[in-house]
Amino acid sequence: MSSLVEPSPPPSQPPSMPCRLPLAPSPPCVADAVKNFLAVLLASELTVTVGVPQLSPLQLQACAHALLQAVNAVPSPEGFRAPDGMKVTRAFGLSLLSAPGHWEAVVSTSLRREGAIEGLGCFLHAFGRSFVDGVVEPHEVELGELVWAADFSVALHERGSRRRVRAQEHAGSARAAAAASGRSTEHAHDELRHLVQAQLGAH
Predict the structure, then answer these.
(1) CA distance 2 to 98
(2) Under 8 Å CB-to-CB from 152, ≥6 apart: which residues?
(3) How far apart (Å, rounded) are the C-alpha atoms in residues 119 and 99?
(4) What span, in angstroms and rounded, lies between the C-alpha atoms of 64 and 123?
(5) Sign of torsion, CA 63 64 65 66?
(6) What is d(CA 71, CA 93) in angstroms, rounded to the nearest whole number?
(7) What's the pLDDT tens digit per position in 22-65?
(8) CA atoms within a 13 Å half-sphere pointing along the CA-CB vector of 179
(9) Reduced to 3 states, what is the DSSP secondary structure of residue 89?
(10) Measured between alpha carbons, how far is 8 from 45 in angstroms, rounded to an integer?
(11) Is the whole-model pTM more than 0.70?
(12) DSSP labels for 65-86?
């Protein structure tokens, strides 16, 4: 009687690993946007351009703290309930401040706090211009791109690159204008020389 040989089981396959795609950077929360705003004010000439007075780092931090306190204190609009244990400023970003009437309530609460903070009104106004709708100035567009950037370092690098390109283009235009002016001056000198020679030849 022949014995049956059981077929050997197929070699085990290593478990397949799920393929993880890189996550796209998410827009910053309010707390991170305020940090970006502080970084811009402390590190660039935009401080004066956006209308914020020359305040010390401690004064700017006090303004930022008052703003964040107000955002957490003002009742959130419908649909903006922060998870338990998380502050509103960490849970939500631009969509929260853009909710109808919410930013106005935050500003009002900030300015009603006890103890005046120098420059707070200008600070709030400038921060609000970083996401306001409607007609804005070019420097306000640039400010918004930095404050609400998903990656502040990348946005700052791109801003520097754009500024260098504009500077090079401006320098090139200036050189071209100077060269054209030089050619015009040389041509005028030639005409004057010929005129003088003609006048002298007539005598």
Answers:
(1) 83
(2) 28, 36, 39, 146
(3) 25
(4) 8
(5) positive
(6) 11
(7) 334 468 999 999 999 999 888 765 555 667 878 889 999 999 99
(8) 6
(9) helix
(10) 75
(11) no
(12) HHHHHHHHHSPPPTT-PPPTT-
